[in-house]
């Protein structure tokens, strides 16, 4: 009887420990989110270079799987923004794409100029998402992955991109892959103080 009680106590303690770890992870991501949107320099930046640097940062994950990467750089105009924040946003989107392709697949990354927007397209051949997931994917803490994932990645990306005046569209269907289309203003008049600082998405 004592052994049974001890097993129950150990199981509950383990469950509490796991919950604490998950909570800590969520808090860390919230702090990362806030830090990522805090005041930093807004400069004219090269989106092609930002995208290339981001792909380089996730190359170790791409290399671990048989994922074919195709790139097409449009030699697009510079945009006003924070390169470190945009890299963080693109990393979140690219990691979602990589995770959607468990063993192999194809990843297309393209930049181009369309009307007054610099467009970044990230298209994967992964598992895709049903419509109900697409509607919730930018909500904080929403995730379809394992419990240790805290569901803030897409929210972080969304906040950063919106802070840059971007338009974001997602096209996806189960077993048909996902396409993220990001449109950044090629030319716009900075808001008061924006030429010097990145304004927080929450202000």
What is the strand content?
15-25%
Per CATH, the superfamily is Histidine kinase-like ATPase, C-terminal domain
**End-to-end distance, in Å?**
58 Å
Q: Count of DSSP helices?
A: 6
**CATH class type:** Alpha Beta
Q: How does the major sheet shape up?
A: 5 strands, mixed
Gyration radius, in Å = 20 Å
* Second-tier CATH architecture: 2-Layer Sandwich
Which descriptor suits the 3D outline? elongated
Average residue-wise pLDDT: 79
Present the secondary structure layout.
Blueprint: H1 2-36, E1 43-45, H2 47-57, H3 59-63, E2 66-72, E3 79-81, H4 83-99, E4 104-114, E5 117-124, H5 131-136, H6 153-163, E6 167-172, E7 178-185
Parallel strand pairs: 2-4
Antiparallel strand pairs: 1-3, 4-5, 5-7, 6-7
Descriptive overview:
This protein is an alpha+beta fold and 203 residues long. The protein has one domain (2-185): Heat Shock Protein 90 (2-Layer Sandwich), CATH 3.30.565. 42% of the residues lie in helices and 23% in strands. The protein has six helices and seven strands; from the N terminus they run αβααββαββααββ. It has helices at 2-36, 47-57, 59-63, 83-99, 131-136, 153-163; strands at 43-45, 66-72, 79-81, 104-114, 117-124, 167-172, 178-185. The strands form two sheets. It has a five-stranded mixed beta sheet, covered by helices on one side. It has a two-stranded antiparallel ribbon with strand order 1-3. A hairpin with a 5-residue loop joins β6 (167-172) and β7. α2 crosses α4 and α4 packs antiparallel against α6 (153-163). The termini are far apart. InterPro entries: HATPase_C_sf, HATPase_dom, His_kinase_dom, Sig_transdc_His_kin-like_C. One of its GO terms (molecular function) is ATP binding. One of its GO terms (biological process) is phosphorelay signal transduction system. Residues 1-188 form the Histidine kinase domain. This is Histidine kinase domain-containing protein.
């Amino acid at each position: 009887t004592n052994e049974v009680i001890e097993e129950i106590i150990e199981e509950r303690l383990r469950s509490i420990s796991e919950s604490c770890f998950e909570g800590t992870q969520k808090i860390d991501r919230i702090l990362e989110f806030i830090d990522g949107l805090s005041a930093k320099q807004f400069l004219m930046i090269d989106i092609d270079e930002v995208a290339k640097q981001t792909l380089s940062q996730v190359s170790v994950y791409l290399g671990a799987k048989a994922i074919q990467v195709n790139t097409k750089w449009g030699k697009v105009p510079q945009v006003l923004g924070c390169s470190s924040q945009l890299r963080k946003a693109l990393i979140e989107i690219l990691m979602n794409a990589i995770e959607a392709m468990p063993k192999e697949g194809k990843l297309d990354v393209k930049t181009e100029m369309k009307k007054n927007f610099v467009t970044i397209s990230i298209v994967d051949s992964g598992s895709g998402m049903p419509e109900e997931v697409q509607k919730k994917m930018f909500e904080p803490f929403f995730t379809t992955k394992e419990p240790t994932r805290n569901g803030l990645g897409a929210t972080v990306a969304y906040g950063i991109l919106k802070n840059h005046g971007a338009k974001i569209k997602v096209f996806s269907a189960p077993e048909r892959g996902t396409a993220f289309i990001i449109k950044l203003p090629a030319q716009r008049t900075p808001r008061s103080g924006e030429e010097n600082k990145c304004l927080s998405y929450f202000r």
